Amino acid sequence: GPDEVMIPLFKTTAEAKEAQPQADVLLNFGSFRTAYSVTMEALEIGGFSSMMITAEGIPERLSKKDEPNS
Questions:
Q1: Which molecular-function annotation in GO is an example for this chain (predicted)?
Q2: pTM, full prediction
Protein backbone atom coordinates (compact mmCIF):
# COMPACT_ATOMS: atom_id res chain seq x y z
CA GLY A 1 0.00 0.00 0.00
CA PRO A 2 0.92 3.65 -0.17
CA ASP A 3 1.26 4.14 3.59
CA GLU A 4 4.48 3.72 5.55
CA VAL A 5 4.53 2.09 8.95
CA MET A 6 7.35 3.22 11.22
CA ILE A 7 8.51 0.56 13.66
CA PRO A 8 10.70 1.82 16.51
CA LEU A 9 13.91 -0.02 17.39
CA PHE A 10 15.23 -0.41 20.92
CA LYS A 11 18.64 -1.51 22.19
CA THR A 12 17.23 -3.58 25.04
CA THR A 13 14.06 -5.44 25.90
CA ALA A 14 13.75 -3.27 29.01
CA GLU A 15 13.72 -0.09 26.87
CA ALA A 16 11.10 -1.58 24.58
CA LYS A 17 8.87 -2.67 27.46
CA GLU A 18 9.18 0.76 29.08
CA ALA A 19 8.22 2.51 25.83
CA GLN A 20 5.39 0.03 25.06
CA PRO A 21 4.11 -1.24 28.43
CA GLN A 22 0.90 -2.58 26.85
CA ALA A 23 2.90 -5.02 24.69
CA ASP A 24 2.37 -8.56 25.96
CA VAL A 25 3.86 -10.64 23.12
CA LEU A 26 7.60 -10.88 22.45
CA LEU A 27 8.83 -11.83 18.97
CA ASN A 28 12.54 -12.55 19.32
CA PHE A 29 14.45 -12.57 16.03
CA GLY A 30 17.85 -12.26 17.69
CA SER A 31 20.90 -14.02 16.35
CA PHE A 32 22.08 -17.20 18.04
CA ARG A 33 24.54 -15.00 19.95
CA THR A 34 21.84 -12.80 21.49
CA ALA A 35 18.56 -14.74 21.40
CA TYR A 36 19.14 -16.53 24.70
CA SER A 37 20.08 -13.41 26.67
CA VAL A 38 17.17 -11.44 25.18
CA THR A 39 14.77 -14.21 26.18
CA MET A 40 16.16 -14.42 29.71
CA GLU A 41 15.89 -10.61 30.03
CA ALA A 42 12.25 -10.75 28.90
CA LEU A 43 11.45 -13.50 31.43
CA GLU A 44 13.04 -11.40 34.16
CA ILE A 45 11.07 -8.28 33.14
CA GLY A 46 7.82 -10.23 32.95
CA GLY A 47 4.49 -9.06 31.58
CA PHE A 48 4.60 -11.15 28.40
CA SER A 49 1.79 -13.64 27.81
CA SER A 50 3.61 -15.24 24.86
CA MET A 51 7.16 -15.38 23.51
CA MET A 52 8.20 -16.60 20.08
CA ILE A 53 11.90 -17.25 19.51
CA THR A 54 13.20 -17.68 15.97
CA ALA A 55 16.92 -18.36 16.15
CA GLU A 56 19.17 -21.15 15.02
CA GLY A 57 22.11 -22.39 16.97
CA ILE A 58 20.89 -21.98 20.55
CA PRO A 59 22.34 -25.01 22.28
CA GLU A 60 19.66 -27.43 23.48
CA ARG A 61 21.16 -27.38 26.97
CA LEU A 62 20.42 -23.64 27.19
CA SER A 63 16.86 -24.03 25.96
CA LYS A 64 16.23 -26.66 28.63
CA LYS A 65 18.05 -24.67 31.33
CA ASP A 66 15.04 -22.46 31.98
CA GLU A 67 12.37 -25.09 31.31
CA PRO A 68 10.43 -24.44 34.56
CA ASN A 69 9.70 -20.91 33.26
CA SER A 70 8.39 -22.20 29.94
A1: lyase activity
A2: 0.69
